Amino acid sequence: MKKDEKEFLKSLIETPSPSGFERPVAKIWREFTKKFADRVYGDLHGNSFAVLNPQGKPKVMLAGHCDEVGLMINYIDDNGFLFFRPIGGLDRHILPASRVRIWTKKGPILGVIGKKAIHVMPPEEREKVSKFENMWIDIGVTSKKEAEKLISIGDVATMDVHFEEMTTKMMVGRGFDDRIGAYTIAQALRIISMRKTLKTSVTAVATVQEEIGLRGATTSAYSVNPDIGIAVDVTFASDHPDLDKRLLGDIKMGKGPVVDRGANINPKLFDLIVKTAKQKKIPIQISAAPRGTGTDANVIQLTRGGVATALISIPNRYMHTPVELVHSSDVDNTALLIAEVVTNIKSKDQFML
Q1: Full strand arrangement of the beta sheet holding 170-173
Q2: CA distances (Å), 45 to each of 41, 42, 184, 346, in order?
Q3: FRET pair for 236, CA 20 to 30 Å: which of 86, 197, 286, 293?
Q4: Nearest-angstrom CA–CA distance, 205 and 216
């Protein structure tokens, strides 16, 4: 990654964007894509669009969601402790004894999710997973009145962790699912913008609210009305302990983008992706998807009269935790593969079944 690309990615990962509260990340994404897109805009839902060659045909949509899982404050007790509900699929195992940032209109507030010391836990309690209603955030105040001067009901919080690079081209951060997808489609669009001849119209969309039901992809795909759609998300790497390859397949970090094959995927678009990867010597991995995927590709395929759809995923370890890992070469190769595939799209008829 070049310096400006890395800075863009770091900004995306470190900026809060729980589902329904994606505006800070959307602003960063739109500012970056303005450098090379013909048109950049938003919609009433919060989706962000960057378009190349608006009058071209066929219409291609690239989608990567920019929201992350998080917490929402829903109650403050008399002593100023904050209680919360999850936004998206949060793992209750990992929350206690974590630092969080609460994002208020007055600025971020540091807090900790309290945890009873092991010394005062009865043995049976040590084996239990805390329920959300039994967890609280401590912001260091002593009363509800004091807390309400800082916090409002409905404020959101994220884990207080940062983007960092490892020595092995691995990157660690909160919410790579799926701001890495939003990053990748922006990068793909930038590569496409450098091509001298582009007949297709390409719209990259940083979609919102995927984590709570693929909502942004539903509205944005309807408005873009594409002929071809490629969604970019993360998928489970199975190359670490305690995962069953018989269930998840053999997916490795650093071995290339993962291309889904199955009911959610147009088979001719799948073949084009595989053929292009082979021609350009881009490593790929194949994943079996026997039904609709839990990604934006699902709703894109079913938009209006149907869309020729593909899903290209980036291997990810420890999804929906504060220590998600992705490999930089997988990210770079995903953006390059998408750019090459879009360049090879001539007509929507080539995907008719």
Answers
A1: 164-165, 170-173, 324-327
A2: 12, 8, 22, 31
A3: 86
A4: 9
Alpha helical stretches, state H, 122-195: 123-126, 144-148, 176-193
Structural domains of the chain, ranges and CATH numbers in brackets: 3-68+174-351 (3.40.630.10), 73-159 (2.40.30.40)
Kindly report whether the global pTM for this prediction surpasses the value 0.90. yes
Report how far residue 100's alpha carbon sits from residue 135's, in angstroms, rounded to the nearest whole number.
Answer: 13
233 is in an annotated binding site: yes
What digits encode the pLDDT tens for the residues 249-279?
Answer: 999 999 999 999 999 999 999 999 999 999 9
**Scanning the structure block, which residue is given the tokens 């951060």?**
173
- Which of 5, 22, 210, 324 is catalytic? The answer is 210
Residue whose C-alpha is closest to residue 257's, from 331, 328, 310, 190: 331
Q: What is the pLDDT of residues 106-151, one digit of tens each?
A: 999 999 999 888 888 888 888 888 899 999 999 999 999 999 999 9
Confidence of residue 291 (pLDDT cuts 50, 70, 90): very high
Residue 210 falls in the annotated catalytic set:
yes
CB atoms within 10 A of CB 123: 6
Q: Is 211 known as a binding-site position?
A: yes
Q: Answer yes or no: is 22 a known binding residue.
A: no
Is 89 strand, coil or helix? coil
